[in-house]
Amino acid sequence: MKDLIVVATITAKEGNEALVREALEKIVPPSRAEAGCIRYDLHIDLGNHASFVMLEAWRDDAALAEHEATPHFQELIKTVGGKADVQILKLNQLL
């Protein structure tokens, strides 16, 4: 089975750009340390500095579920809730 790929687009609402960026930067190191994490990379949109993209690769659905239950992920949700719009794509590579 191929890795589970997640593309999370997080767009900070006006006035919350720094708070959202800081929260996203904070979650990267502990997420990368998780056993099921293959990739966890934060990017910023060069045309819109309120928009961030997290490119993730996980061993499988269970690894992603474990990640979503961690204290650092729950803290991120609490911190950015209502302060950003979030879109999540979950993908499997075909070729």
How would you describe what is shown here?
With 95 residues, this protein is an alpha+beta fold. It has one domain (4-92): Alpha-Beta Plaits. It has helices at residues 17-32, 61-68, 71-80; strands at 4-12, 37-45, 48-58, 84-92. The protein has a four-stranded antiparallel sheet. α1 runs antiparallel to α3 (71-80). The mean pLDDT is 97.
* Rg from alpha-carbon coordinates: 13 Å
Strand/helix succession: EHEEHHE
Secondary-structure class:
alpha+beta
Tell me the β content: 35-45%
By CATH reckoning, the class would read: Alpha Beta
The number of helical runs is: 3
The residue-averaged pLDDT reads 97
Anisotropy-based shape = globular
Q: Any guess at the CATH architecture? A: 2-Layer Sandwich
Proportion of residues in helical segments: 25-40%
Oligomeric composition of the shown chains: single chain
Alpha carbon gap, first and last residue: 12 Å
Uncertain regions spanning at least 5 consecutive residues? none
CATH topology type: Alpha-Beta Plaits
Find the count of extended strands (DSSP E, 2+ residues).
4
Largest sheet: 4 strands, antiparallel
Largest sheet, spatial ordering of strands = 2-3-1-4
How many separate structural domains? 1
